[in-house]
Amino acid sequence: MKVLLVEDDAIISEGLQYSLRQEGYEVAAAVSQKEALALIQSEIHWDFCLLDVMLPDGDGFAICREIRKNSQTPILFLTACDDEVHTVMALEQGADDYITKPFRIRELMARMKAILRRTEQKGRPDAAVSIVGKNQVNLQTGKIYCGNEEIILTAMEYKLLLIFLNHRGQTLTRRQILNNIWDDVGDYVNDNTLSVYIKRLRKKLGDSPEGQIIKTVRGTGYRMEK
To answer: What is the pTM of this model?
Structure first.
């Protein structure tokens, strides 16, 4: 499995490269936005991307946007500040998760594996096709279409969609949703982060006040109605 690591701090980068290789990953490291974009635009298929936010010639957000133009490669941000603005920006750009420095290697590995498990769920055999609003969700391929246009979801967005599909018509509390998302590795998502994920999912599914797909149940949580 090939991992792209974008980190300009040499000590952090070397430590991560060593730990990732010990876990069996192939790692390519970049120290700048320019280097990272060159690797992304090469013919190499990346299975996972670890992106630092602040880089000497730009930031990880621009790299994330470039990846998301035509790829669902899992992305985890490495951020130096536990700032809600940075968190929201990372998730809005299409990241699957973020972790604040300094972090423990074991926690990073756990988050990576959780994201990869969610990604793998898209390929599990299942003949059913679900209709969500104007969208068709193929549970065999993990692909979503609105007419002939494919709707690209991140691994976390797809996991969230599956939770709603599995409890269609049922009101879910925010705590129930969080527990379902992080049932394997612990509760790493807070209320603000969950709000961002739901906002992104609604937008991609074409949710609107006139044709509401995921309804907010005030004081309780959410319900998928269509």
So the answer is: 0.62
